[in-house]
Specification:
The protein is mainly beta. It has strands spanning 4-7, 10-12, 18-24, 32-38, 45-50, 57-58, 66-71, 76-81, 90-97, 105-107, 111-115. The strands form 2 sheets. Strands 2, 4, 5, 6, 9, 10 and 11 form a 7-stranded mixed sheet that branches. The chain has a 4-stranded antiparallel sheet with strand order 1-3-8-7, with no helix packed on it. Strand 7 (66-71) and strand 8 form a beta hairpin. The chain starts with a strand and ends with a strand.
């Protein structure tokens, strides 16, 4: 079992920045780490993912504004969010998924991001 704890959400003005962090209770070195988000009334969507041996992937809506990074020795994954827009408002979730053991798929509790004047 992997426990994921997100932090760093909050209220920010349009154009501002936030950095989300996700701390894992075990080693993440074998996992694809990702950030998802879910806005009110919408389905959860992938924001960015960082496999262990494949290119990083971003949603088109956040490319060039968001950046995902991981620190395997510290078991953390961060999401740097710049030039935030009101449509980025959502609950952001950290996800750890093993690349071939499908039962190893874990979620954090989420952190709220609100982008508003």
């Amino acid at each position: 079992q992997v426990r994921l704890v997100e932090s760093g959400g909050g209220l920010v003005q349009p154009g501002g920045s936030l950095r989300l962090s996700c701390a894992a209770s075990v080693s993440i070195s074998s996992y694809t780490m990702a950030w998802y988000r879910q806005a009110p009334g919408k389905a959860r969507e992938l924001v960015a993912s960082m496999p262990t041996r494949a290119p990083t992937n971003y949603a088109e809506s956040v490319k060039d504004r968001f950046s995902i990074s991981r620190d395997n020795p510290k078991n953390t994954v961060d999401l740097q969010m710049n030039s935030l827009k009101p449509e980025d408002t959502a609950v952001y979730y950290c996800n750890a998924k093993h690349p071939w053991i499908t039962s190893l798929d874990f979620w954090g509790q989420g952190t709220q991001v609100i982008v508003s004047p």
